């Protein structure tokens, strides 16, 4: 069942669902979701002379990105065709009996700005900021301002609490992330097996 505004608030007041900081609940809380704001850090993909990303080589993926900080009050210009990683300003702590999905806001979608290219699941047990996959599918550059509401989290109650929540007994490679985190797919067991 998807949590309503009332239930989101109740779970936050009870303290097991954490979204922090929420500076203006009246603005951020929606009928069945909570709006999240854009943080100040971005990872831009470098157009280097590396011709191809090999997901199984972790270091190589890291080599592709450059971190930029844009303080609140300034703008990050997202150019047509660009793909950058951003972060939510808020960090979340998802209890074991909830799953959250990240969605872009319709108002930004109407400007051709997509907030998550593929990944939208925030697992039960996940703690940290959320990495946003920002792209501009339109034809005009769009100015994004850190602090603006760009995405929303929808919380769904599980049929029972997860036995193995994110961060427990598994390779939870994004647990506790702060700021945008580049892909760490190279540490997946199927890639590391057989390595010297
Ligand atoms: N847009 C998103 C989506 C998810 N996450 C965080 C919360 C998730 O709990 C965690 C892992 O997400 P996925 O399970 O989609 O990613 P992977 O399967 O690649 O990672 P893992 O192997 O760690 O499960 O990353 C995030 O920061 N930004």
Brief write-up:
Pfam families: DCD. With 196 residues, the chain is of the alpha+beta class. It has five helices and 13 strands.
Radius of gyration: 17 Å
Helix content: 10-25%
Task: Tell me the strand percentage band.
Answer: 25-35%
What is the residue-mean pLDDT, rounded to a whole number? 92
The topology string of helices and strands comes to HEHEEEHEEEEHEEEEEH
Large-scale geometry: globular
Bound molecules: 2'-deoxycytidine-5'-triphosphate
Number of strands: 13
| Low-pLDDT windows of residues | none
Number of helices: 5
Largest sheet properties: 6 strands, antiparallel
Query: Which class of secondary structure composition applies to the elements?
Result: alpha+beta
Distance between the termini: 46 Å
Description:
Homotrimer. Its EC number is 3.5.4.13. It catalyses: dCTP + H2O + H(+) = dUTP + NH4(+). Keywords: Hydrolase, Nucleotide metabolism, Nucleotide-binding. The structure is a single chain. With 196 residues, the protein is of the alpha+beta class. The strands form 3 sheets. Strands 1, 4, 5, 7, 9 and 11 form a 6-stranded antiparallel β-sheet that branches. The chain has a 5-stranded antiparallel β-sheet with strand order 2-3-13-8-10. It has a two-stranded antiparallel sheet with strand order 6-12.
Q: What key phrases describe this protein's structure?
A:
binds 2'-deoxycytidine-5'-triphosphate, 5 helices, 196 residues, globular, five-stranded antiparallel β-sheet, 34% strand, 13 strands, six-stranded antiparallel β-sheet, alpha+beta
């Amino acid at each position: 069942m998807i949590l309503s505004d009332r239930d989101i608030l109740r779970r936050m007041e009870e303290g097991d669902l954490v979204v922090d900081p929420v500076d203006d609940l009246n603005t951020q809380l929606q009928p069945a979701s909570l709006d999240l704001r854009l943080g100040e850090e971005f990872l831009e993909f470098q157009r280097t002379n590396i011709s191809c990303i090999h997901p199984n080589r972790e270091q190589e993926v890291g080599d592709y990105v450059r971190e930029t900080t844009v303080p609140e009050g300034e703008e990050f210009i997202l150019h047509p065709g660009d793909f950058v990683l951003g972060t939510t300003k808020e960090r979340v702590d998802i209890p074991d009996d909830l799953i959250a999905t990240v969605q872009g806001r319709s108002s930004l979608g109407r400007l051709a700005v997509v907030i998550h290219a593929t990944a939208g699941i925030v697992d039960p047990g996940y703690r940290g900021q959320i990495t946003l996959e920002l792209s501009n599918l339109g034809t005009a550059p769009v100015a994004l301002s850190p602090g603006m509401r760009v995405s929303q989290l929808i919380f769904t109650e599980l049929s029972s609490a997860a036995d193995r929540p994110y961060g427990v007994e598994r390779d939870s490679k994004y647990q506790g992330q702060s700021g945008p985190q580049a892909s760490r797919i190279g540490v997946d067991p199927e890639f590391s097996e057989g390595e010297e």
